[in-house]
Design a protein that fits this description.
Layout: H1 18-38, H2 49-53, H3 56-63, H4 71-99, H5 106-131, H6 138-157, H7 161-178, H8 181-187
């Protein structure tokens, strides 16, 4: 009788009638508790934690009237979109150079073009998430700007100021918009209050 049935956690052997009654008895008091929770005193304490849990939301709403996104956040998202478009233009130039035979190897030119388009799509998706104030979008946006700054400096070093200066200006605008206090509040996850 001490042996346990496989996977059930109960002892083998015959069951006493008291064990099935215990769950039935346990469910019977649950029914009276359900109407007790539906009485007026029970819902009154339930709404009290709800305003405490939503106190971070009014702070974010105060930063932007009528639930609109902060201007800095929209600036950062717009800069991300412009960077994605610029990357698509660079990919088009790379594809044209590869097609004209100006690439050292055709396979590497095609691979770089495909990689640039994939990166542009990724940056555009991050921009959409940033415009929707998704908390996870802050880190990819900041990392993207780090790479844009590195690329902009490399372009300036390679005597391409017509590409490097706009890249650096866009990265600066995006970081400024991303790091404004209103944007940081909008991108913060609401704190979970435990009772």
């Amino acid at each position: 009788m001490a042996a346990r049935a496989k996977g059930t956690g109960q002892a083998k052997g015959r069951r006493s009638p008291a064990k099935p009654k215990a769950p039935a008895t346990a469910t019977a008091p649950a029914k009276p508790k359900a109407p007790a929770t539906s009485k007026a005193p029970a819902p009154a304490p339930a709404p009290a934690p709800a305003p405490a849990a939503t106190t971070p939301a009014p702070a974010a709403a105060a930063a932007s009237p009528a639930g609109q996104r902060p201007a800095g956040l929209l600036l950062a998202a717009a800069a991300q979109v412009i960077e994605a478009v610029g990357l698509c233009v660079a990919a088009a130039f790379g594809a044209i150079s590869t097609a004209d035979g100006k690439s050292s190897q055709a396979a590497s030119g095609v691979a770089l073009t495909v990689l640039a388009v994939a990166a542009a799509v990724g940056i555009a998706l991050i921009a959409v998430a940033l415009a929707k104030a998704r908390p996870w979008s802050r880190t990819p946006t900041a990392m993207t700007q780090l790479f844009v700054i590195i690329g902009g400096i490399a372009l300036l070093d390679g005597d391409r100021p017509e590409w490097g200066v706009p890249a650096l200006l866009l990265a600066a605008a995006c970081l400024v918009g991303l790091l404004t206090p209103a944007s940081l509040r909008a991108l913060n996850r609401p704190s979970v209050q435990r009772q």
